[in-house]
Amino acid sequence: MCRIAKFAVEQHLPGVMGLFAAEGWSYASDEQRTSRALSAPGSLTLVALESDEVVGVAQTLGDGEFQAFLTVLIVAESHRRAGIGRKLLKEAIEGTPGVHLDLISRADGFYEAIGFEAMSGFRLRR
């Protein structure tokens, strides 16, 4: 049975770094920087745990009033299609104040299936 918990650097960072590495995310390149990013002011970072093993992670960032962004949602490949992503997303949405929650996606079908509206967007890479 999967449970959702707030991210704790000491307990969860190694497992979260493994998820980032498995997906080829830039977060995997610098553990200290990733730790700071996942603990940033205005953020909510949650982990999905199965027997204390990190099998998923979600993060939102927001202004606390109007706008919020889903910046991270990853579920370990071995645990996909078991409702973990939906559970993480539900708890992240409930724990993040604001009117809007926006995201950039490579999993459009997942978000469309749970009611997100597709919109055009742009990204500036530094």
Measured by DSSP, the beta-strand proportion falls in: 25-35%
Count of DSSP E strands?
5
- In CATH terms, the superfamily is Gcn5-related N-acetyltransferase (GNAT)
CATH architecture type: 3-Layer(aba) Sandwich
- Determine the mean pLDDT: 91
Q: Tell me the name of the CATH class.
A: Alpha Beta
Task: From the structure above, extract its key features.
28% strand, alpha+beta, Aminopeptidase, 126 residues
Task: Describe, in short, the structure shown.
With 126 residues, the protein is an alpha+beta fold. It contains 4 helices and 5 strands; from the N terminus they run E-H-H-E-E-E-H-E-H.
Structure, explained:
With about 130 residues, the protein is of the alpha+beta class. The protein has helices spanning about 10-25, 30-40, 85-95, 110-115, and strands at about 5, 45-50, 55-60, 65-75, 100-105. The chain has one domain: Gcn5-related N-acetyltransferase (GNAT) (Aminopeptidase, 3-Layer(aba) Sandwich). β2 and β3 (about 55-60) form a beta hairpin.
Blueprint (SSEs and pairs):
Layout: E1 3-6, H1 9-23, H2 31-38, E2 43-50, E3 53-62, E4 67-75, H3 84-94, E5 100-103, H4 108-113
Parallel strand pairs: 4-5
Antiparallel strand pairs: 1-2, 2-3, 3-4
